[in-house]
Write a structure and sequence with these properties.
The structure is a single chain. By secondary structure, this protein is an alpha/beta fold. It contains four helices and five strands. A hairpin with a 6-residue loop joins strand 1 and strand 2. The longest helix is centred in the middle third of the chain and has 18 residues. The protein is globular.
Length: 138
């Protein structure tokens, strides 16, 4: 099992938070990176967030694991819902796409502006559009 590693990068102008993760996703070790982002001086509710999870191993998760990950995120939902910003998640494989979509369905009450992508360019365009449909999607 590869250790979960996270990095957070805030755009200098505060317009975007980019989260990157590698390794194996599981229930363990998930709160620490979220706490670090929320404590960062540049974090603010509503900041558009790009999650680059193309190197993250998601496929080992079961539906029960995903439900438990949703419960971890529920801990943060009140803070994030004050002014929810769009969250774009980019994954590399179709199976990961399906698992993230499952998480999205479980968590849609917590993150109302959330979308998963297989292509980084589409995610970036969606975020630039404020989390609304773009011309390519219609």
């Amino acid at each position: 099992m590869a250790a979960l590693e996270w990095s957070a990068n805030f755009a200098e102008d505060g317009s975007l938070l980019t989260l990157s993760a590698t390794g194996d996703l599981g229930r363990e070790g998930l709160c620490e990176p979220i706490d670090a982002v929320l404590a960062h001086k540049s974090w603010r509710p509503g900041i558009p967030t790009l999650c680059d999870f193309r190197l993250l191993n998601i496929f080992k998760l079961s539906a029960q694991d995903i439900e438990q990950l949703v419960e971890v995120h529920r801990r943060y939902s009140r803070l994030l819902q004050k002014n929810p910003g769009p969250i774009a998640v980019v994954v590399a494989k179709v199976v990961d796409y399906g698992l993230v979509r499952m998480w999205e369905l479980f968590a849609n009450d917590m993150f109302p502006v959330f979308k998963v992508f297989l292509r980084m360019e589409e995610a970036q365009e969606w975020l630039r559009a404020g989390g609304r449909e773009t011309a390519e999607e219609t």
